[in-house]
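Job type: complex structure
Entries:
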Amino acid sequence: MSGAARAVVTASEWKLPDRGHVAILALIVAETAMFAIFVAAYLYYVGKSLNGPTPRDVLTLPIAASILLWSSSVTIHLAVRALQAAEIARFKLWWFATIALGALFLVATAREWYGLIYHEGLTIRTNLFGTTFYSLVGLHASHVVIGLAMLTTVGVLALRGRLNATHARRAEVLSLYWHFVDSVWVVVFFVVYVVGR
Amino acid sequence: MLAPLPALAVDAVVHTSNIFDPVSAPADSVFRIAMLVLAITGAIFVIVGGLLAYSIIRYRRRRDDDGSEPAQVYGSDQIELAWTVIPTLIVLALGLVTARTIYDVQGAVAPQGATRVTVIGHQWWWEIRYPALGIVTANELHVPASNEAGATPTFLDLESADVVHSFWVPQLAGKTDVIPNRRNQMWIAPREPGLYLGQCAEFCGTQHAHMLLRVRVHPRDEYDAWVAAQQQSAVVDPSVAAGRRVFESTACINCHTVRGTVATGRFGPDLTHLMSRDTLAAGAALMSGESLRAWINDPDHVKPGALMPAMKLDDAVLDQLVAYLQSLR
Amino acid sequence: MTLLDPTLEVPRSDADGRSVPSVLHEWVVSVDHKRLGLMYIASGLLFFLVAGLEATAMRIQLVMPDNDFVTPQVFNRLMTLHGTTMVFFVGMPIVLGFANYLVPLMIGARDMAYPRLNAFSFWMSLFGGILLYSSLLGAEGLFGGSAAPDVGWFAYAPLTERAFSRGNSTDYWNLAILLSGIGSVGTAINLVATTICLRCPGMTLSKMPLYVWINFVVACMILVAISPLTAAQLMLLLDRFLGAHFFDTQAGGSAILWQHFFWIFGHPEVYVLMLPGFAIASEIIPVFSRKVIFGYPIMVAATVSIGFIGFSVWAHHMFAVGMTPAGNSFFAISTMLVAIPTGIKIFNWLATMWGGKIRFATPMLFCIGFLFQFLCAGLTGIMLAVAPFDWQLTDSYFVVAHFHYVLIGGLLFTIFAAIYYWFPKATGRMLDETLGRWHFWLLVIGFNMTFLPQHFAGFAGMPRRIYTYDPNRGFEIWNQISSVGVIFQAAAIACFLVNVIRSLFRGAPAGDDPWDAWTLEWSTTSPPPAYNFETLPAVQSRRPLWDLKHPDDPDWRFE
């Protein structure tokens, strides 16, 4: 580019991406790499357990729980839209619906684990299936727990009337994390309950 | 701290174990490709290093510099292209040669009459089994030499009883790791009879340094004689009956085998022909009555961290035991 | 453009009559990227001294066959601590510290995108290091070698499983690195967000200094590289504490799987450490050759392609584990491919010097040392990439020599270059040139004396990580030369320490721009104020200060 002079870009016309979005995407990339290793370990050890029980013996498709979790992606999306439109009441409704769905998912996981441990006798030390199953599903569940903690924090702030439309961008960043947790469950669902069974 | 025992000094003769002194087929292949790589990288070093040195000396700021800035050159597509394409061609050529050598070495199939040996890595010694011949020994591998009449390679199945080890006798072949829950394979076909030294090459715990390997390559007839001797059961020598009773009535037999006796342990080395070996404790000491005595008295002193326990035998009993062990030829 | 504002005063953030605790408190609670950067670097240098002492003890042990300076147990702990410390608590903190300090300044920002995350990340890394060394207090205490980990820095399974590693020594290793890994990922996220979102007006991606570009690529690599290690370490944690069987070979677990997971982290990690060295060289070589960097776009492209190829080469650490010929060939060739972009970089630095007017100030001396030594490291890297040759070389002293040429001959030399180059900016005082030269030449002699012979020890058949060797193998001579080299290295480091401490108090005043350089950090005061720039700069080219100094011949006409 040549020319005698070139206009200096002024601060007002200089637009860069939002740091919240960039940072959460970076976090998601890092988390994806971590889940990838757990998934790789799960797939590598499918069928390599030296003793039972096998996935076929004890696992059932967690369809209801999965629907609960995936639908929470819809509710959080609606919540963020409501906040952007400054409709705080609607935001609270969808936001708490999201929290409830996430919590129900955890309850379903807890019930599944209770059955596996107390009725099927499968623990993390039983065999390679137990080792990889509890680790992968547990790693995902721990992300749900962290997500719920953050959602609840925002929920409490909303109840105390401390939230308005200017916070929409932050809520959206949080929703990206929640969408990530939901999409990881798609992978876990297929790896553990479809391919691995 | 640990006074080295003078009596246990290892032989003073220097045995080379240099990778550039190969005496066996896989090591030969490696040697050839290594020479090619050294030539290529050497040439690159001379050219690039020379250019660097030239430009640093030629373009230093002179004493009479006028303080002006030199011409600013932002880049050149032609030059960039040149030094992208040339290295790419070198890499492609080298890659093909590499792949070929990999397939040559790894693709070798055992011919009829190849010797088959199973080598099992333990924390910190090598169990060596000849399944077809019924021989079990330790730390010293005996194989026949290949000659003009034909290659008589030895194929090794590598297994581990505990952690990861690596089998490395530089003059015979490159390393192959010895991994638990997995069976690896390698082969050697040494041309020249002699003694070749090697050792474990993957860190495997406290005594990784004293997990030495010896490979004795014999002419065919000598090898056959060794096999015949090893296939014998242990010598029964009435003059050392007292020592044998000690051996069979202490914990020795939990870990060691002496074929033809009640000792059938597998945790430690087979002692049936103990005295046919040059060294003790995977090369920690040369084999002798004196070193045997020191070793049994306190293994941890000879080889700190060794897993063999000290049996706390009193001197007289120890002498009897050593006498018995020395009878195991 | 208001880049240089002569009226701006240097705020004195130093002790100025205040008590030590209050100054200390100010640093501990700081979220300023410059202070955090300096603390990163200082902690790295501190650990560098510790790990250097460990190396010295090992060199004393190996100076003659059958030596008994340390027991095998202590040697294995020294070796593990040395490697772990140098990679995670020296290399990473220093590299990230420089990025922390320089990236915001170079892109004309006031701080990192997330200052508090930045502080959190730094302290996590430091606590990791402290946790690792608190293992020295456990079990048998200092003299007996303690509960320090003894499984090597890559901690191959199943040696790390409960069956072979009782007590908690391996857990110190595991948790210390887990903690510092969280810190590294935090800083990487921060660097990515900072680079993308906080550039000053006019600084498009193609106008970022190469230093920023390369550290951006490094931050992206950290995101993808550290997490697999974290995952594998979580698995090891589950194995060791909850009885899981990921790497438990007795329950069907795989020893190889750990190796894959570790090197999926471990090889990109090599580039994570080495690329910042390239970044430093890419700033210093042009300034001291008085020429613009040659081939900026292809330097960026080469960096990005190293970043990508770096993730497909990990199993070249595993040529001896018995992979299929196809697997070995793939990883051999993909590893060789790395040589192409790396070669391009060396050629571009060469072309940058070509036709320039080279000033041999200490930063440039270290860069020149880097160029030659890294050339050696690259070429021995090609030898190792040739899988059949690697069957002989892997796990031998040749590998030890190779990666010390990479990490000391390459990275450490550029780190010293960076310290001499940016010390005036950070402190307002110059480092002494005479001591700098002593430092450089002693280190060149000592480093090459220590590590060149180790190539030959490897050829002679000496495996790495042995605490002693027999006199009958021809290893002595190489080990003796190697150990003597340590004396020169120690003298070099002593010169450096004296230089730093003396210059902090009595160094010549530096001024804002002592090297007549071209990037934005030189447009503010030395040291920069907490807010970096009074008015945020706006740029038109990659060398904004060149434009300012040569209004008749600005860069943006040619970019």
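Summary: Chain C is about 65% helix and 0% strand. Residues 1-13 of chain C have pLDDT under 50 and may be disordered.
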